[in-house]
Design brief:
The longest helix has 37 residues. This protein has a single domain, classed as Orthogonal Bundle (MetI-like fold), CATH 1.10.3720.10. The chain contains 13 helices and two strands, in the order ααααββααααααααα.
């Protein structure tokens, strides 16, 4: 009987026993789609917690850096608004008012706070207008040398090998020439002018940028995010622009800030030697050259332009040191 009862199981349609019933195959119900979890976007960071605000607050906490920042801003504003700030025309000559001491008042009641020079020109007005030449040369030359050095440092450090050897040997050759002699030779051939001074200083100052950026790139290219970009097949130029350049920009910025002070000193030295911007355009170095003859009789002719150079260079150096310490993640304030 057991065999008779189980025999029809091979063919369900032949089952006629009322005791055996086949359960209908019911397809499992389709699972309901899982609810999509909403991701809450992070709210915008408060103003006091933004990165640039934090960096600025760290910079202001350093008194020397704050002093440098104030000096730099004061010189920059004086250069931009020189025609409005200067009390006199810097080119106006009056031989009858030559070599007047600081605080002297003319017949019209106008006061010369820093006195007049050997041609009767107001010294304060010439110092204010001279800041235009100093900052123009400083900013332009640093921009040229900084961009050139950045490009060479990126290529040299990232590709290394023969490319690195070629650029570094060029840097050694560049450093072998004394800069002043090179500038005198080039300007003597091209002629003294504002454009030639900017070109000479800018082209001959790229070495320090290239070496600093190269050293950073040699370290950055070995990090995980760069290796991951290489493994994903990113092109070299994309890796340089998107990953390497942003991380090498901070030391470049610090070097550019400090190098600007050096460029201003070089421009003043060339003007002192007669190889800078030619008279009657006022320059700090040219004013020093004019006042050296009158040191014993009119000390203010050379003293105040020298103080302008001293304070400006000191302010830029203090600001650069504070910027370096602020951007260094290893230091805390």
């Amino acid at each position: 009987m057991l065999g008779t009862a189980l025999a029809p199981l091979g063919n369900p349609s032949c089952i006629r026993s009322p005791r055996l019933r086949l359960a209908k195959l019911v397809a499992p119900p389709t699972a309901a789609p899982a609810a999509v979890e909403s991701i809450a976007l992070a709210p915008p960071r408060p103003f006091a917690e933004r990165e640039w605000v934090l960096l600025l607050s760290r910079l202001i906490r350093r008194r020397t850096a704050l002093f440098g920042l104030v000096v730099v801003l004061a010189v920059l504003l004086a250069a931009v608004f020189a025609p409005l700030i200067a009390p006199f025309d810097p080119l106006a000559q009056d031989i009858g008012q030559r070599l007047k001491e600081p605080g002297w008042q003319d017949a019209q009641g106008r006061i010369h706070p820093l006195g007049t020079d050997h041609l009767g020109r107001d010294i304060l007005s010439r110092i204010i207008h001279g800041s235009r030449i100093a900052l123009s040369v400083g900013l332009s030359a640093v921009l040229i040398s900084g961009v050139l050095g950045m490009a060479i440092g990126l290529v040299s450090g990232y590709f290394s090998g023969r490319v690195d050897d070629i650029f570094m040997r060029l840097a050694d050759v560049q450093l072998a020439f004394p800069f002043i002699l090179l500038a005198i030779a080039v300007i003597g051939v091209l002629g003294p002018s504002l454009r030639n001074i900017i070109i000479v200083i800018g082209v001959s100052s790229w070495v320090v940028y290239a070496r600093v950026v190269r050293g950073e790139v040699l370290s950055i290219r070995e990090r995980e995010f760069v290796q991951a970009a290489v493994a994903l097949g990113s092109r070299d130029w994309r890796i340089l622009v998107r990953h390497v350049l942003p991380n090498a920009f901070t030391p470049w910025l610090v070097v550019a800030t400090l190098d600007m002070a050096r460029v201003i000193v070089i421009e003043s030295a060339l003007a002192f030697l007669g190889l800078g911007v030619q008279p009657p355009t006022p320059t700090w170095g040219g004013m020093l050259a004019d006042g050296r003859v009158y040191l014993s009789t009119a000390w203010w002719l050379a003293t105040f332009p020298g103080l302008a150079i001293l304070v400006t260079v000191l302010g830029i150096n203090l600001f650069g040191d504070g910027l370096r310490d602020t951007l260094d993640p290893r230091l805390t304030v």
